[in-house]
Structure prediction request, 870 residues.
Amino acid sequence: MDQVEGRSFVDSGDDGGEISATLADIYDTLARHPALAAAGADQPSTPWGSTGDLGSADLDRALSRVRIGILHRDSARRVLAVNERFCELIGRSVDELAGVSLEAYIHPDDAAAANAEYNHHTATATPYDRDLRFVRRDGSVVWCVISISYVCDAAGQAISTITVLRDITSRRTAEEGLRESERHYRYSVDLSPTINWIGSAEGAIEEVSSRWEDVTGGAPADALGERWVEALHPDDVAPTMAAWAEALASCRPVDIEYRLRTRDGSYRWFRSRAAARLDGEGRAVRWYGTLEDIDDRKLAENALRESEERFRLAAHAAGLGIWDYDAVHDRREWSDELKRMMGVPLDARPDVATALALVVPEDRHALESLVAAVAAGDGGHRFEVTLRIHRADDGALRWMQTGGWRIEGAAGQLGRVLVTVRDVTEERTAEQRIRWAASHDAMTRLPNRAAFGERLERGIAQAERDGSRLALVLFDVDHLKETNDTIGHDAGDLLLRTFAERLREALGPDCAVARLGGDEFAAVLTDVDGEATVSELVLRVLRVLREPFTHEGRILDCQATAGGSIFPVNGRDAAELLKAADMALYAAKGRQRGGLLMFRADMRADVQRRSSMISIARDAAHDDRITPFYQPKVQLLSGRVSGFEALLRWRDRQGSLHLPGTIAAAFEDLDLAVALSERMLERIVVDMRDWLDRGIDFGRVAVNLSPAEFRHESLADRIMERLHGAGVPPSRLELEVTETVFLGRDAECVGQTLDAFSRAGVTIALDDFGTGYASLTHLKAFPVDVIKIDRSFVSSLDTDAGDAAIIDAVVGLGHRLGMKVVAEGVETLAQARHLREGGCDEGQGYLFGRAVPAAVVPGLIVGEQWKAVG
Prediction:
């Protein structure tokens, strides 16, 4: 008869006896069950508690009493019996258990180990148990104790397996929570900078954190019981033990300070605080305490006490009054110097009420708030406040600067307050002078921009109330920069002072005059009749200003240009008037140096037009609406297209195309000019890469660089990085620069940048040659590969012999220097033939084609050569 090799997998729970008895019944029943004899036959999966060949009354009763999951399967994993609890625990039906390894339902982290252990024990039919997690169909995880036993035949070979599951999820969750709590506590204790300890109700130390060893060098065990006393400074043992004994007797918290011996043999100050955990009757159950290192604070306090006397002597020598408050003993002291400052008798009582009585009513709240904050411990250890007092003896108003600091006692309470008082009345007078300086120009002693703005607003308000007119006139000193650069800043400063004096005298004391900054001055003319009156007065002032004067034997010109606006005609507030006058001044400097222009509406329109250009260009650059068009360059001998010049075009929001002239003002804005160039370069590189990918030989593409771009040190790196990033050879790029880039202080940087491009293989072309001011030596000093003859010479080539001679000379010069020569603006066959016969290499202009979008370029290249030149 087959026997059951197994065990009762029940631990000592509350229902352990009942479960053990039930399992005994189950095993006894299974051992006698006829199904075991036919384990190899096909058997249907039969839940326990049902009727069938496998079931029996005894087995059904036993299984129904079990509150654990039980599964009985043969060696082919056919379910011989299973109870509902088993299915419930793993979240699967009876049918799903047939033929499927339980590994499929085990948590992935447990599966490998569980499978290995199962195979090991199955080989010897040895029962075993372990904790496992099962993943239910809904994704929930349940922890179970799984116990496996084997039913063996007469030869000892396992013919079926009995698997018992018991839910231990609650227990595992509780255990994990306990472990996490223990870890949290341990980390909190170990990482705390303080030394934490726990003592018994009688005061014996039972546990000390590892920080004890870090500080003292001794193991935590060396501090248990009363052995910690051995680490105390000998002078601190008696007071410490007395305080500890009193705390043990009263069960009240203790807060004391003492010194502990450290691992190097020195002593450091620590603050020891402890409190007892009490039972319901108020008796101590356990003591909990901390040791906090306060050595730095104690040393600072001791040093402060030692220096107090020296401080008092120094304060007396410096004329400082001392207010010393001992909070521990509630004593106040005033130094004799302080009493003299306050004008009180030397025997006056040093209390807060006496001081408050002298403070002016408007400042008393500040002193009261300070006293309350210091007493409460609010704020920092240092404080400062400036108060006004009336001296007690003569009533004189004096300014007193009060500064001090609070010193904490042993337990953090206020221990002492030291205050110094200094009479700063004379300094406050000096502050008035400082405030004057903040609103005036030190050089000319005129009001500055801020003060003038307030004066202008007051004048506008008065004119509005009176219904009168007011004029604002801005003056710009001509040639101040030239004076500074050629004669020196001393001369320039004298020019500004002379101009200010003359302007103030010419306009009279009732006129508000100011220096706004640099070479710009302003004046407010009140109660004016109209523009004619203003013009007459200002022109007379300009004549007075224009009178020359001498400086160190040099004659200086005091000329100025003026622009004006009138309230309320040109603006109804200070900002509008200033803007209008500034537009008029800008126009005057461009058209009428040394004169006056009053604001006109068309000036606003011009400024707005320029502002609109900049705004449109900025939006176009931001929205990526900048696009290059390409004008072909043709070899004059062969007629073939040799390359292209990229010309900027931009589209409005409706898609219409515009020439760069419509945003001309944008190219004067340095940052915006660079942004436009960056957009152009980005699109050009994309186009070149596309042509290369399609096998189109487009020659070189020329790109114009503005002088502003050379002010950016990263110009070469930025362009080369973009070429390399797209895989475009540098030899495919040609950079066109004008002669103006070679002039000025940045010429050396320009040369270095062009050298970097040339070494990388980029072609350098000098554009508009012959129209600038550069020397011919620049052709030798800089790496120029191509000279481009300006269109102004080509346009009259067939009618002006002088232009023809210049072109022939430039071609000859270029070829002798090893440079290629390109003529711009070629529009007629006669011009093209003359250029070809004169040896000019390439031509560019409407004769060969206008600028076209990138999509048209391939057609120009693959078509027939341009034959009309011949």
The CA atoms of residues 702 and 734 lie 4 Å apart. Confidence is low (pLDDT under 50) at residues 1-23, 31-56. The first strand starts at residue 3 and ends at 5. The first helix runs from residue 16 to 31.
